């Protein structure tokens, strides 16, 4: 059965973002995979910083400043690149991955994330990895990488953050790309009947 919403048509078994509880299950499943240290930090950064797949695979070691807990996010599609703070759990996950990464033959690669073959990831490999992680999490619907970006937008909106702040965080040049998150945010309606 399909439901028509203001934004898009949604199948009961699919949607375009993960709720907070679904995201927790997804991240836990990423940690439990064969390459848990790498996969967990990749999924965590993709979600927290609203990264597109091309932005994720292009993250370089030089983009990290662990001393000041910052990540330089190099946006694509004419979006605004920014330096964003890293939370404590992100820093711990990055450091765990860096210890594992240092043991790889291609540890000198400028890219932060390396595949099993010690090469930079492809978009297709990320899509596969996200799908496998979702299956392990038993979410009951297919997950694609762009859903993690949408999850970031919806999560920030549901926390009550300003549309302009979310726009800057996601690197949107046009605010019409951002209002989809805030227009449906439950936080907007809190206290209406008090």
Please report the number of helical segments: 8
Characterize the largest beta sheet: strand count, sense, and whether it forms a barrel.
3 strands, antiparallel
Low-confidence stretches: 1-13
How many distinct domains? 1
Q: What is the average per-residue confidence, as pLDDT, rounded to a whole number? A: 89
Principal-axis shape: globular
Q: Pairing-aware structural class of the strands and helices?
A: mainly alpha
Number of strands: 5
Please state the CA-atom Rg, rounded to the nearest Å: 17 Å
Describe the structure.
By secondary structure, this protein is mainly alpha-helical. The chain has a single domain (2-189), classed as Intergrase catalytic core (hpI Integrase, Chain A, Orthogonal Bundle), CATH 1.10.443. Helix content is 44%, strand content 8%. It has a three-stranded antiparallel β-sheet, with no helix packed on it. A hairpin with an 8-residue loop joins strand 4 (70-73) and strand 5 (82-85). The longest helix has 15 residues, at 123-137. Residues 1-13 have low confidence and may be disordered.
